[in-house]
Amino acid sequence: MKKIVVVLFAIFISSCSNVEKSPPPENLFSKDKMAALITDLYLIEGAISSNKTAYLKTGVQPSSFLYEKYDMDSITFQENLNYYTDRVEEYLLIMDEVQENFKSLQDSLNARQERINKEEQSRVSKNTPKDYIKDLEDLDPDEEI
Question: Of 7, 53, 144, 145, whose CA is between 20 and 30 Å from 112?
Fold first, then answer.
């Protein structure tokens, strides 16, 4: 029984070793460009899935937007995607860069939100209790609030 398992395992391993990889496309994207493209693709897909109604109202086609932005067509995109997914090590490097892109975006959004919060807080802190008391004193006592 062990011999049969070993033989089947050997056949399986040898059959997997001759898998042909996709040839490089004529317009091969750099890893940086592919990472930027995948980052944008994930952002668009996330935006669509979070608010499909708003997406439908815009009438924007995400694929057309990406094709125009990266000066490509669907075939070029698919060829590049196939090329990199057939080369796991390179694809993992691209996905690491995509993850870094998202981390940078998150850091940028956090910094922007902190700045907005500080601006709001400074506006609120400028209106001290003395200002509120002064505002109350300026009110006409016969006027209803």
Answer: 53
Cβ burial of 16 (10 Å; 0-12, 13-18, 19+) is exposed
> Which of 93, 42, 68, 62 has the alpha carbon at shortest distance from 76?
68
Which alpha helices (DSSP H) does 88-128 contain, by range? 88-126
What is the end-to-end Cα distance of the chain in Å, rounded? 92
pLDDT of residue 106: 95
- pLDDT, tens digit, 9 for 90 and up, residues 2-61: 667 655 666 666 566 566 888 899 999 999 999 999 999 999 898 888 888 888 888 778
CB 116 within 8 A of CB 56: no
What amino acid is encoded at 110 in this protein? N
Q: What is the pLDDT of residue 12?
A: 63
Question: What 8-state DSSP symbol labels residue 144?
Answer: -
